[in-house]
Give the backbone structure.
Amino acid sequence: MTLPSTYADRNCSLARTLEVVGERWTLMIVRDAFFGVTRFGDFAAELGIPRAVLTSRLKSLVQEGVLTREGDAPGGVEYRLTAKGIALWPALRAFMNWGDEFYSPAGAKRTFRHDQDAGLIDQDGRCQECGTVVRVPEIRIERGPGFEPTESDPVSEAITTSRRLLEPVTAARTPAPAAG
Ligand SMILES: [Zn+2]
C-alpha cells in the first residue's frame, strides 16, 4: 500500500515510516521475525496471510532493508531482521503494550525477561533485576497471563514457547548450524 503522494511528499518522518510498516500485515511479519520465524511457509502458516500478499510484503521489507533474504540456508530461503529491522523493536513493543493495556483484560499476552537473570523487562526495555536496557537477542519471551491459545499449528506453538527473540524456530524442529 502506498500513501497518497501529497501526504508522503511532506517532510514527515512518521509518514515515511508508515510507508514502510504501516500496512496491516507488515508489522505482523516483522513481529514474527522477532519471534524467530524465518521461512516463507512458516510466516504463511502462522499469520494465515494470503501467499501473494506475503510475497509482496516480504519483497518490500527486503527492498527497504528491514529484512535480508538469505538463499543459501540448508533448508532454503530465510528472512532475517537487519540492524535496521531490529531497531523497530521499541516501537513494536510499545504497540504490544498498548494492546495489552486496552484490549487484554486478562493481562499481558506475553512477558519479556532478561535471559541472563530472568528479570522482568519493563515498558522502557529495562531489566527490573539488574537495571540494564536489555539488547534484543538477550530478551526471553514467555506466555503472559493474558495468553490465549488459538489454532495450534506447529509454528504458532513454537513461537509461544519460552525462547529468546531472533532464535530461529526452525532450529527447534531440525538441528541446524547455529544462526550467525
Ligand atoms: Zn537483568
DSSP finds nine helices and five strands in the chain. The pocket of zinc ion is lined by residues 114, 116-117, 119, 127, 129-130, 132 (CB under 6 Å). The mean pLDDT is 87.
